Amino acid sequence: MKNRNHHKINTFFLFLIFIFTIIYTTKQVNAASGNDYPIVLVHGIYGWDKDQIGSYNYWGGDLDIVKMLNDEGFKAMNVKIGTFSSNWDRACELYYYIKGGTVDYGAAHSAKYGHERYGKTYPGLYKNWDDINKIHLLGHNFGGETIRLLVELLKNGDKDEQNYYANNPESGISPLFEGGKNSVASITTLGSQLNGATFVNFVKKYNVKSLYISLGGLPNLYNNNPKYDFGLDQWGLKRGANESIYSYYSRVLNDRFMNSGDNAVDDLNTDGAQALNDKTIAYSDIYYFSYNGNNSYKSELTGFYLPKEMIWTVSATVTGKYTQNNALPFGDKAWWKNDGAVSVISAQYPFNEPHKNYDGIFEKGVWTVYPTLENWAQEDFVGLGTRKDYVRLFNIYKNIAKTLTSLPK
Q1: Left (φ > 0), alpha (ψ -120 to 50) or beta: where does 120 sit?
Q2: Cα separation values, 393 from 223, 288, 295, 377, 382, Å
Q3: Percent of the chain with pLDDT over 70
Q4: Can you say whether residue 179 is alpha, beta or left, with left for phi > 0 and alpha for psi between -120 and 50 degrees?
Q5: Could you report the per-residue pLDDT of 58-67, keeping only the tens digit for each?
Q6: What is the C-alpha to C-alpha distance for residues 162 and 172, in angstroms, rounded to an integer?
Q7: Distances (CA, A) of 372 to 226, 288, 384
């Protein structure tokens, strides 16, 4: 009996060893075939940091998507950069927010537009960031454009800054403008204006920038949170400690910043987006993914696209019938279907870059375009809309994280 029990114990331990070996081997295979690069989430316009709107999160609203991803075993982190700043200024801030150091907007750039060359100093989210310790960049709304420009600067630097430095070596130059860096593994965009937003064309044409800045009733949210700030320190436009959001808006709107050409309005219209597309490509060492939503329907009476329930009703209505003498790529009507702020056609892929519909096979240098999320508004991508479909929302982010970390190094 004793020998029989001893045999059973040995068999049991051999079974455990067998199971642990399988688990360990599986983990090793997954680690070898995937990656552990962190995912950096980059907000769009109206973005805020944790301490600025109480416990309400930009990434998730009542949820904390960043925390939930980390709890699931992924490495996720978010940044806070300028809200209505230009793509250039935001890309510079993003670089230093991740890497650490004092933001350098560039000697040539700051001289051209008339703002301070240096900005805030950041401790760095991921100081080890380099060509070996890469990152995944995920951008919502304007964040999608910002991460594309950041990659362009990392890869090729900037000729104007390089020329300025060559003629003024005492001025120094930011490492960002030197180029030669291959430190981004993937780009993912959520409802981003990859080819511009026709609503911003409308704002720019009729000079209703106040409508753009106060869009969607969000000022009420900000006004109750005096810490909220647009992040325009380089322009000397910091919100006062006891200043109402409306007073702050007024100062920003009447400042040279909004007429400088170095702001979000000038970058997010279709001409601004085209200018970015003209100087960027889909790089052969980077994976590209895009998500787009539609929350509009075609009116049988007018043929225009009308908004379903959403926060940004004004921009949705304008986008759903915007015309430009049929001068937009693929024709004006192709831009009417939208998520409330961005046309479906604009959020899918940059028109001048390779793309394909999602088929489960991912190629570097080619945009993988996921199917349109129907009944999904711009604000739903970050859990700030009226729908509050948190299960669907988190599953989207979890699936994104799974895909990104499964990519080979």
Answers
A1: beta
A2: 27, 20, 15, 12, 8
A3: 89
A4: left
A5: 999 889 999 9
A6: 10
A7: 37, 16, 19
The pLDDT of 23-43, averaged and rounded, is 68
Report the Cα–Cα distance between both ends of the chain, in Å, rounded.
Answer: 54
Exposure string of 256-268, with b = 16+ CB inside 10 Å and e = fewer, is ebbeeebbbbbbb
If one counts every other C-beta atom within 10 angstroms of the C-beta of residue 346, the result is 27
Question: Can you give the three-state secondary structure of the chain, one letter per residue?
Answer: CHHHHHHHHHHHHHHHHHHHHHHHHHHHHHHHHCCCCCEEEECCCCCCCHHHCCCCECCCECCCHHHHHHHCCCCEEECCCCCCECHHHHHHHHHHHHHCEEEECCHHHHHHHCCCCEEEEECCCCCCCCCCCCEEEEEECHHHHHHHHHHHHHHHCCHHHHHHHHHCHHHCCCHHHCCCCCCEEEEEEECCCCCCCHHHHHHHHCCCHHHHHCHHHCHHHHHCCCCCCCCEHHHCECCCCCCCHHHHHHHHHCCHHHHCCCEHHHHHCHHHHHHHHHCCCCCCCCEEEEECEECEEECCCCCCEEECCCCCHHHHHHHCCCCCCCCCCCCHHHHCCECCCCEHHHHHCCCCCCEEECCCCCCECCEEECCCEECCCHHHHHCCCCCCCHHHHHHHHHHHHHHHHHCCC
What is the four-CA torsion angle of 357, 358, 363, 367, rounded to 10 degrees? 50
pLDDT at 152 over 80: yes
More confident residue, 344 or 26: 344
pLDDT digits (tens, 9 = 90+) for 267-284: 999 999 999 999 999 999
pLDDT, position 134: 98
The CA–CA distances, whole Å, from 232 to 135, 252, 264, 274, 283 equal: 26, 9, 12, 25, 31
Residue 86 buriedness (CB in 10 A; 0-12 / 13-18 / 19+): buried
* pTM for the full predicted model: 0.90
Average pLDDT over residues 75-89: 96
Length of the chain equals 409
Question: Is residue 298 within 8 Å of residue 166, measured between CB atoms?
Answer: no
pLDDT of residue 207: 84
Mean pLDDT over all residues of the chain?
89
